[in-house]
Amino acid sequence: RQFCGNGYTSVCASFAAANRGQILLDEIKKVSFTVEDTNPDLRFAFDGNSAALPFRVNLYEYANLPQQRNEFTKIGNINPWTETVGVTDADIPLSGTSPTCAEPCLACLYKFNYLDYSYVPGDLVIGAIFDVHYKGSGPYSCGELRGKDGAMYTEVFNFALQQINSGNTNVRLNGVTLGGLSFDGCSNPPRAAAIINRVHTGMEIKATGGSMERFSIKDLVSWLTYDSETTVNVASLVKNLDMTVVSPSATSVKLDDKQEFSTFFRTIPSDSVVVRGMAKFVQEMGWKFVITANAPDSASRESRDYFRELLAGYGICVVAAYEFETDGSMETVWRGIEDGDTQVVAVFADPERYAEDFLEAKMNSDNYIFVANRPWGGVDPRYYDKIVDSVSFALRSPTIAQFVTYLRTITPAASNNPWFSALYENLLACDLPGSFTDNPACTGSPIQSWRQDLRTLPTINAVYALAQAIHLTLVEKCGSNYNGLCSAFLNDNNVQSSIRANMDRLNFLDISAQMFEFFDREANRGFELLKYSSSGSAQLKGTLDRSGALTLSDKPGLERDYQGVKSQCLRACDECATNNANMLDFSMITGDFYIVGLFDVHKNGSDPFSCGDINDKHGLPLLEAFNFAIEYINNDQGMFSDNNKLPGIRLGGIALDTCQSPTRAANLVANIQSGNLVLTKDGNTVQPQRIEAYVGPMDTESTLRVADVLNQLAIPQISYGAKGVELLDMDKYKYFLRSVPADDKQARAVISFLKKFEYNNIQLVTSFDEIGEPGREEFKNLALVNKICVKIEYVAGERGDMAGDAKRIVQELAKEGTAKVVILWMKDPLPLLLEANVNPSVNNGFMFIATDKWGANPEILTNPGLQNLLTNRELVILDVETADIPKFDEYLEPKTPDNYIRNPWFKEFHEHFKQCVWGDATVPGACDKASTIPRAENYVQDPYVLYVINAVFSVAEGIDRALKDLCTVDNVYQRGACNRYVTSGERRQKVMSGIKQVNFTDDTHQPFFYLENGQSDRGFHIYNVTGVDGSPNSFQYQNV
């Protein structure tokens, strides 16, 4: 009816529209009807992509009489969608059965011990999981009190609430009080998750301090968490409840992924910022060899691994890595360190937990330099002489005078905080009545002096930021003159998302008189670089901004201080050899926001970081297709001629050479995003925050390595060439798409070909790499389903000897008399085909079917080592479905090394491609300056040009959709990049969402869109090799 009208009598022409499938799917999802023969009536409908039908509850009834039979009888329904249970206790005769645990169960220990809580009532309540104690020996139990950076945060939290409710801050609520519900998670993630589950499933909670007011879950607006691993668990858990989580302490790099943790904020920067500063400091000091030591927790391991990755980009070697506890005692760790040749040790650990034990075990007086990711200023004075000249990074954390005044009014006797007495005894080393630790008796008077904990200001800012966002949401829902909670705030289903949107754009002057705001949902703050003296005092030696840029105040002075420090490796350190030459050559098109393209302009070099000769296949022409697409968009051509597409926005492009090296590709991306490699050309510098997406690389292995980096950073990536099936894992690679079809589709194409010609008995040869291994499994699974017999299979290159394996495998192929169709699922099938060509038992009568890794490569047709196979027409080749883009050739036509300088490799490619020397026309072999690349006899447009262009167009469409989403206010779209778009923590998630929704007609006049598994809708061509009429020994590809 939608396409052909309500009175349609047949299929009309409009029904062939490209979007027919999507509209049909939308209509199917709207379907609702009564299921036949149901009593009472049962309605069928969809909830998302699933049927919203209830579950039937059956009771098993045992027959008491011989003529009866045992059977299940329906006793009711449970409907998860309407949250109704149509079963009563009377329906299930349980005979007094009840769930019990005769003794305190270890798994439930959190219910019996250490589940004290503090509840300060309010109209709205912030829940908080503190780490008052360390983790205990049991799965849910608690250990010793955290006297530093732990228990005191419960009082900081109470102080912040009091400040807001009393109106003593510029962040305030009108007629609304903010309450707090505090628990002790004991640095124990399972315990914290169990507590949150109890709260959300109806735990009975009443106010502390004598009030009988009870907590209601409907008042809860957010959770506060501290420990990194706990925060990861909690953020994953309450995301499903659309509940906001804010952390003043969780610095885990894993939490950088704001799509996976879509309701998460933190009032400190990520550890990835500090790690970039540590790596940059090591590089600035000229140290080439480093040791690492880390705490045995996931956050410290993530930081260590990221540090190592960054150092690789600088050509710096981690000669040894140690983990506290895991690698034995601290003495054992130190013996390993002292056996080495370097005195530079990078430490990833919270100082209050491991630093002092680490320093205590330091046995000799050698001047080791520690580069730490946490401030060490609070260590015991006994260890000051062991940290001389060491450095650490710290947020600027001035003493909060108001909190000092507040704490000096609290006594153990008057406090309603269940943990304050233990904290008081810990700080003053005394015993309150009822404690017996042989310490002197406490006076009971308020605490007068203590060291302010590291996360005091971030904790206050977490509460203030939530309060400010709640205030802005109340204004939206209840009006600017609101006084209390209105019905819209209490009942609208988008209140949580509104709070997060307001947190994205808020800013306020915090209690230390610093401006606070979020950038990408993290505090927009930098760090101070501190260097320690023998007195334990810290001297400011530099600053580190949020982008990871390190500024040293006196680099020459630091170099003098460290001139005697050993950073060497006198043993075999070959595994750390790197070469960063030419890492920063790139082409640039300036813009407001950037797409980065990754291309193999050169072949790989002698090591993972160097480059070799010009790459003949899928190299520079694809880079130019990238530049063509950027210019096409900026010139408002074709589908971008609509003034509503990217209005007021100029799209920028950076194209890099990855030189067929997965290591180089991953390091380039990691170092660009960390700020360690600065993209500057002609006075223009590209900030990492302005990079919206990456396009590339070409091959699967490089793409996997790059995806591992970008997925952590929540940055979209579209490959124009990687077809490996591993990348189909959309849970692992949430930010990955590809404009090409994947190998699962190629496997189906090969199967279809075999079935059409009834080739049901075949042999299979695969390579031992990221192409052959997963490809083999995919093909075999499909062959089994389609009743195609894989009689024999071979793996080439498993021992690293591809040439030897090729000869052996061809000899084995020849022995098989019935299965003469051979599938080659290989990264490079040429060695095997060269062997087959000279084997008379194979080169006539066998058919070889090669995948797109060979592709319709014209060089194969002229290879003298394949003449027998070509002549006998024993080759079938698959390649991606494609077509030439005439506009691209027109773009490339006028470019010469003289007039085209944007591409730093264009002259080198031109000379290689045309086998000439550009410049003086009188020299032998001089290039004909009138002959451009598209006019050359051997020029064939690369089949992947289309896929590069479609990838770039997809990103542009995604950016356009994200801009319209974030920059539309009161149904009016603000042209250009609005502040909300620039600062939004969800910007790249929205770009990714927009890319997934693209559906356009590309330059081949075919619809282009992405399937649910992240690959494009395109397929494969199948080619046969045929002779050229009238030209003996000349061959061509025929599309069959």
Automatic annotation (TrEMBL):
Source species, domain of life: Eukaryota
InterPro entries in UniProt: ANF_lig-bd_rcpt, GPCR_3, mGluR, Peripla_BP_I
Domain Receptor ligand binding region, residue spans: 155-511, 623-1027
Chain coiled-coil ranges: none
A GO molecular function held by the record: G protein-coupled receptor activity
Subcellular location: Membrane
Protein name: Receptor ligand binding region domain-containing protein
Broad class of the protein's primary localization: membrane
PANTHER family, per the entry: METABOTROPIC GLUTAMATE RECEPTOR
Organism of provenance: Elysia chlorotica
Lineage: Eukaryota, Metazoa, Spiralia, Lophotrochozoa, Mollusca
Keyword tags: Glycoprotein, Membrane, Receptor, Transmembrane, Transmembrane helix
TM annotation in the entry: none
Single GO cellular component term: membrane
Membrane topology term: Multi-pass membrane protein
